[in-house]
Write a structure and sequence with these properties.
7 helices; alpha+beta; 7-stranded antiparallel sheet
Amino acid sequence: MNIHSKQNKIILAKYIPANSIDLIVEWIYRFNFKLKIKRSRLTKRGDYRAPLQNKNHQISVNHDLNEYAFLITLVHEVAHLTTWELHKNKVKPHGEEWKNEFKVLMQHFMNETIFPADVILALQNYLKNPAASSCSDLSLLRTLKKYDTKQEVTFVEDLPLNTLFKIKSEQHFIKGERIRKRYKCKEIKSNKFYLFSPLCEVILVNIATENTEKLNLLPA
């Protein structure tokens, strides 16, 4: 084992299940990609960039995912890589070709030495027709959420109407009505409206402890 493999194993041990590390390290070299662990991003959990202008494949994954969500996201992005190798830009990003690659790659990890039984069951249902993001599958996302350590975070859809919440950028919103698939929420300072996915993770604000003067709010 070379020094880079050892370093990669040490780093990956912080983010993915122990029994998945060896194969992921092997993939990094077999598929020749750079893995970047990024700060939390509200709109995506990971992404893939093709090796244009003689650069390596590049995959990024958010640092704050639990180990099961991190691994699923990583495999999702590796499936983009293998799809690109086979078809370049001639197919849809999440078309049948990507779905087939993702299903094949995930089979390497579908056992209880890596995932808990409830995650495997939710994954099996999701893999029947995987979507552009695992976040779009409510059953899988709810199952994965059980293994989060950040208990103060919840989904927009779980909040009652007119509830005050904030996102990681510290912007504060009031939850409004659902319009088709998203919730129309008002940002406190600007009074502008934004559309939120029902599955967007937010932080419930306790007005009793929040700086209400800064928000121009008064406790009820």
